[in-house]
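Protein: Transcriptional regulator
Species: Pedobacter paludis
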Amino acid sequence: MEVVKNQSIPGKEICAGSLKNVLDALYVLNGKWKLALILSLVQAPKRFNEIQNEVAGISSKVLAKELKDLELNDFIKRRVFPTTPVSIIYEATDYSETLKNVLAELSAWGEQHREKIKQSMRTHL
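Structure follows.
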């Protein structure tokens, strides 16, 4: 265990505020798929089937629900084109761009800990 010296311990108010901030963020970004879907759509607008093919393992039912939740919270927008059949394109909003640093940090963390994560997954399956 690493001992940190000369670093003050945050006060109760700061810790409580940080916890509330994290809980607020998790409230709108909860679940296994939301950040992956945002990352997919930040790269480029896509149709439903393109998203489902890119985000491996998500069912159609769950994808539809998650897209509705993300649209409700202004992370994505759904554009409907009056073609035959109707074309629907999902795209990230500017609000999704505010998660760029979070997604980059999660990606870096996942890469750094990939072997440990794989080992943990094998142990728990």
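Remarks: The chain has a mean pLDDT of 89.
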